[in-house]
Write a structure and sequence with these properties.
The chain is built from eleven helices and 13 strands. With 404 residues, it is of the alpha+beta class. The longest helix is centred in the middle third of the chain and has 27 residues. The protein is globular, with a radius of gyration of 21 Å. It starts with a strand and ends in a 6-residue tail after the last helix.
């Protein structure tokens, strides 16, 4: 569109000091801000409030709404590990994650990503024919078409360089949302295929291009946030992302190229979308796109050896608009989004008593080095738990840029 301006590579509308950006440890840290008694109390609140809302039978939180979200979350949880090869570790998989894995190798039967190729995919090498070859621009057009065919929306491209590698976490556990602080190291090596051990996950150095694809969510259910009906569309989008990843990575292998990603990958996915020109970073710290605003449920990231031309960040006025809007901050039931006008390099203060943490560690969820509105992610997640709704997205529902 005429109102979208292209910027320089790695210089989006959000101001970044790349010297300050450092790789982070990847794990869910909500409970680290609480002592054991507080964790137990809030877990009880979750179950008690869930039961209370169902009994009250209010729109958006009825038994139907609770039930309609479960199938999608079940699909997500039972195939959550398809990003990782899990050989030698799946014996200790928590109950509920066993379906979809080969009992002999431990790899996910649907998509052993860190194995040599995808389960059931016939590659050019298998057929004895040359792999696809094109110019970077031809490859970009091919990938854009394939990504949309597989269920993605917006597509962008980046290089695996000194900027983007900082967005990949230093460590990652067997399951990102269950990982602890002492997970496996994520590294690059001069190898032909991605692989894993019990100590590390390895991305081939030859996979020096990055494909970025968004998975959208529907607007109308999101308008009911916070509610189970709104969370159902969240779950549905995550489930669609799993189908997309399996389909899309199968395509990359089928044309003869290597890839590592995406799934619940060890990285901050929103910055990849911002840097590749899909959207701008907004006050709520999600990306806002010209096409659908913040109705992006997931940003898929694939490291590949397919040559691609990087796409640049964009400016269509969203980040500037966020300075004077603030509707998402007003709509947030957890007061997790700041209301002040100007973004800052400061992070959430450690003495922020919002949601009553035992001891807040804002450095666990606020990555320094960028000029933003520092959200209190603990307070956000805490609302999910204590309200019994599991999720929220009131910020997304309130955004004036949200549209189907």
């Amino acid at each position: 569109p005429w109102y979208v301006r292209e910027l320089e590579y790695a210089k989006p509308t959000v101001e970044i000091d790349w010297n300050m950006i450092q790789r982070q440890t990847h794990y869910n840290n909500w409970e680290d801000h609480l002592d054991q008694t507080e964790k137990d109390n809030r877990a009880h609140m979750y179950y008690d409030n869930t039961k209370k809302m169902v009994l009250e039978n209010n729109p958006g939180n009825t038994m139907f709404d609770v039930a309609i979200r479960h199938p999608a979350w079940t699909a997500v949880r039972r195939n959550m590990d398809y990003f990782f090869g899990v050989e030698g570790i799946m014996k200790d998989t928590p109950p509920g994650f066993e379906m979809g894995f080969d009992p002999e190798s431990g790899h996910c039967m649907m998509s052993p990503v860190w194995a040599t190729d995808l389960f059931g995919i016939i590659t050019p090498g298998n057929m004895g024919v040359p792999r696809w070859e094109g110019t970077p621009e031809q490859n970009a057009a091919l990938i854009r078409m394939a990504a949309r065919w597989c269920g993605g929306a917006e597509v962008g491209y980046l290089k695996a360089d000194e900027y983007t590698k900082k967005l990949v976490h230093k460590t990652c556990g067997i399951l990102p949302i269950l990982a602890d602080k002492n997970g496996r190291e994520v590294v690059w090596e001069n190898v032909d295929q991605p692989y894993e051990t019990d100590k590390k996950l390895v991305i081939p150095e030859k996979c020096d291009n990055i494909i970025v694809v968004t998975i959208r969510e529907e607007r109308n259910p999101a308008l009911m946030a916070p509610s189970y009906r709104a969370d159902a569309t969240t779950a549905k989008s995550y489930a669609r992302s799993i189908a997309f990843d399996i389909h899309f990575r199968g395509f990359l292998h089928a044309i003869g190229y290597t890839s590592a990603g995406s799934g619940w990958g060890p990285w901050n996915n929103v910055p990849f979308g911002v840097l590749s020109g899909i959207g701008e970073l907004g006050r709520m710290r999600g990306q806002i796109t010209p096409s659908c605003g913040p109705l992006i449920r997931k940003v898929e990231v694939f490291f590949t050896d397919l040559p691609l031309p990087p796409t640049n960040p964009i400016d269509f006025g969203a980040n500037r608009f966020c300075r004077d809007c603030g509707l998402c901050a007003k709509a947030c039931p957890a007061s997790a989004i700041p209301t002040f006008r100007e973004p800052t390099y400061d992070i959430t203060p450690a003495d922020d008593a919002n949601s009553n943490p035992t001891k807040l560690h804002p450095e666990y969820f606020n990555l320094s080095g960028k000029k933003v509105w520092p959200n209190n992610d603990f307070a956000c997640h805490n609302f999910w738990v204590t309200s019994g709704k599991h999720g929220c997205a009131a910020c997304v529902a309130s955004c004036v840029f949200s549209k189907d």
